[in-house]
From TrEMBL:
InterPro entries: D-isomer_2-hydroxyacid_DH (IPR050223), D-isomer_2_OHA_DH_cat_dom (IPR006139), D-isomer_DH_CS (IPR029753), D-isomer_DH_NAD-bd (IPR006140), NAD(P)-bd_dom_sf (IPR036291). Gene3D superfamilies: NAD(P)-binding Rossmann-like Domain. This is D-mandelate dehydrogenase. Pfam families: 2-Hacid_dh (PF00389), 2-Hacid_dh_C (PF02826). The keyword Transcription does not apply. The keyword RNA-binding does not apply. Residues 1-36 are annotated as: Disordered.
Length: 419
């Protein structure tokens, strides 16, 4: 399914030591050669076509003015974006030999469904870049795009701060049992003895189940932009957590020293020592779970679990079983296996009413909200446009994710009189 409107331009908190392209500020707007104008260039060269799928730009009119001067922007209507008609239009070359695809929002632009080889094989050879809102790219075959010579750029950099902020709240929830506390208080609107009992039970019993975060070990699965911001926010001196991480590529000594982060060469090693595990890694191209039943079995008895990445990364059935048995004490989930549907058993675990032998309200559930801020969407638009402007000028993409699959050399489009 398409990702809900959600994920984030670089936040106000810089991330020194991150991957250079992903952490660098957005470049200045491309400028035309002195003495030339957009109209003059349009007469000398046919402007490259950009296929804009989804709603119009809302937040960045100045960047869009430059963007639309540089390129001929074509935006299909909703009916044209539905898969059968979209395929027909590509076969007919209805939108010409476009050079880029631009999707600035998550709520629209996904009407054609998954970008698989059926769609990608129909794209014109002129297409060089696909820039989209959102951090995740499990809805698009980035390998197939790369093999066709198309760079895919996501907008996860724009989401990092919002997602990290949200994850802080979720980690706190797992230590302080916020779903239990909030649910019991909300139900106290009814003055019957049943709700009085819920309030008083939570007031007395949540204390013995709650803990401070300080000195506990935070295990981060993934130490990219989001993971590093989360480490900054929850580590010393703020909340005083001990930061441990696992990633497919170890970070530099400078990054580890700055964050006070300890690297684990294997995921089981990280899980064995972590008091709270946070999944903040991208989903695999084929959607295989990372946290399988076997991996969940490596977690410490009574530890906590947070997922702000993708539901496909977790064997949800195995997680539910671990929560029901009390092996994992509490959890906070923003994403699910079958969004927008949430498992009834997870809903039971989130209830403030005691439905199991262990304490109620053990799971915080949210609706794929982690990256959902106004600033996020401002960044989605801006970063997507800047990625396209950079690539079509023969410069490096800002946030590419599939360069390892690229099969043909990049070509510079002559947008100025300069070589």
């Amino acid at each position: 399914m398409a990702e809900p409107t959600n994920t984030p331009m670089p936040g106000s908190t810089p991330i020194p030591g991150s991957t250079p392209r992903s952490a660098s500020p957005a470049p200045p707007l491309p400028s035309f050669a002195q003495g030339s104008s957009a109209n003059g260039l349009a007469q000398r060269f046919a402007r490259p076509i950009v296929l804009h799928i989804g709603d119009p730009v809302r937040f960045n009119p100045m960047t869009y003015a430059s963007f639309s001067d540089m390129f001929q922007v074509v935006r299909p209507e909703v009916e044209e974006r539905k898969r059968p008609e979209f395929i027909r239009a590509l076969r007919e070359e209805r939108w010409g030999q476009f050079s880029a695809i631009f999707r600035p929002f998550w709520g629209t632009g996904g009407e054609m469904g998954k970008w698989d080889r059926e769609l990608i094989d129909l794209l014109p050879d002129s297409c060089r870049v696909f820039a989209s809102a959102g951090a995740g790219f499990d809805w698009v075959d980035t390998k197939a795009l790369g093999e066709k010579g198309i760079i895919y750029c996501n907008s996860g950099l724009a989401a990092a701060e919002a997602v990290a902020d949200f994850a802080v709240a979720m980690v706190i929830s797992t230590f302080r049992h916020l779903p239990w506390c909030m649910g019991a208080a909300n139900m106290a609107r009814d003055s019957t003895g049943g709700t009085d009992l819920l309030f008083n039970t939570c007031h007395t019993q949540a204390t013995s189940a709650s803990h401070n975060l300080r000195h506990h070990t935070l295990g981060l699965i993934g130490l990219g932009n989001i993971g590093q911001q989360l480490a900054n926010k929850l580590g010393c001196p703020a909340f005083g957590m001990q930061i441990h991480y696992y990633d497919v590529v170890r970070k530099s000594t400078e990054v580890e020293t700055r964050l006070g982060a300890t690297f684990h060469e294997t995921l089981p090693s990280l899980l064995h020592v972590s008091d709270c595990v946070v999944v903040c890694a991208p989903a695999g191209r084929h959607g295989e779970p990372l946290m399988t039943k076997e991996m969940l079995g490596h977690m410490k008895e009574g530890s906590r679990f947070v997922n702000i990445a993708r539901g496909s990364l977790v064997d949800e059935e195995a997680l539910i079983q671990a929560l029901e048995k009390g092996r994992i004490s509490t959890a906070a989930l923003d994403v699910y296996s079958h969004e927008p549907k949430i498992s009834p058993r997870l809903l039971d675990l989130a209830s403030p009413s005691p439905t199991t032998e262990v304490h109620p309200g053990r799971v915080m559930l949210t609706c794929h909200n982690a990256g959902g801020t106004v600033e996020t969407h401002v960044g989605f638009e801006e970063l997507s446009m800047r990625n396209i402007m950079a690539v079509l000028r023969g410069e490096e993409a800002i946030t590419p994710v599939n360069l390892q699959y690229l099969k043909r050399p990049e070509k510079r489009l002559e947008l100025t009189d300069e070589d």
